[in-house]
Design goal:
The chain has a domain at about 5-135: Helix Hairpins, CATH 1.10.287. α2 (about 15-30) packs antiparallel against α4. The N and C termini lie far apart (about 205 Å). It is rod-shaped, with a radius of gyration of 69 Å. The protein is about 80% helix and about 0% strand. The model is unreliable at about 70-85 (pLDDT under 50). It is mainly α.
């Protein structure tokens, strides 16, 4: 008997999803134009449908497997042993066509898978490049922020130092002015003291001169008095 697995081009342990996918790919080859123009196309499509119906039904598939003369096989390899029998040229052509279709679809699937992998690799590389660019931009921004913070800190220190210098200069100027005023006041006080001492000495001198003058006048008066007394005693008159 013909193997439904070979008709659909699937292994003996194919899953229902794989069977559906194989039947869908194979049935798409039989377009309306092909069915209308190609001899035997309807028969091959009917065989595909029968094979699909047998494999999709669990009971029919189990009966089909029992009918296949298949020796015990290891579970790993996907090998289907079918009964050897002479097939018609149409069946052989159908099987070859199905195998070619399966090979084409397999190659297309492989190429699509490889293209998908390449796209994924390219997308992963693009993501890695974007992430690297973002990290570099973040690093540059952080470096710029750090430099800006350093510049701001340096400017603040310079401003604080300038204010401190201004305050120290103002304080030094104020101290110098205070010392100048103190010296000026000391000089003025010393000058006032000197002037007062000079006035006191002048007043003392004048007072001494007046005292001496008065004392001289008093001696003169006493001497005149003595002369008058002598004149009275000697000549009986006040003036001799």
């Amino acid at each position: 008997m013909r193997s439904a697995y070979l008709m659909l081009g699937v292994p003996g342990d194919a899953s229902p999803a794989e069977i559906d996918d194989a039947y869908r790919r194979a049935s798409q080859l039989f377009t309306k134009e092909r069915l209308a123009t190609e001899d035997g196309a309807l028969a091959r499509l009917a065989e595909l449908k029968d094979a699909y119906r047998v494999l999709r039904d669990p009971a029919s598939r189990a009966a089909h497997d029992r009918k296949l003369a298949a020796p015990p096989r290891a579970p790993a390899p996907r090998t289907i042993v079918v009964e050897r029998q002479e097939a018609s040229p149409v069946a052989r052509a159908a099987v070859i066509g199905i195998c070619l279709v399966a090979a084409v679809f397999s190659a297309g699937a492989y190429i699509s898978h490889r293209n998908s992998e390449r796209r994924q690799q390219m997308e992963a590389q693009e993501r890695a490049d974007r992430q690297a660019a973002e990290r570099e931009a973040t690093r540059r921004q952080q470096e710029a922020d750090r430099l800006e913070a350093q510049r701001a800190q340096a400017a603040a220190k310079a401003e604080a130092s300038e204010r401190r210098l201004i305050l120290e200069s103002q304080s030094s100027a104020a101290r110098a002015q205070a010392e100048v005023r103190s010296q000026e006041m000391a000089v003025a006080s010393a000058r006032r003291n000197e002037e007062a001492e000079a006035r006191r000495q002048e007043q003392a001198r004048l007072a001494e001169e007046r005292r001496v003058s008065l004392e001289s006048q008093r001696r003169i008066e006493r001497d005149k008095q003595k002369v008058r007394e002598l004149c009275l005693q000697l000549y009986r008159r006040p003036d001799c």
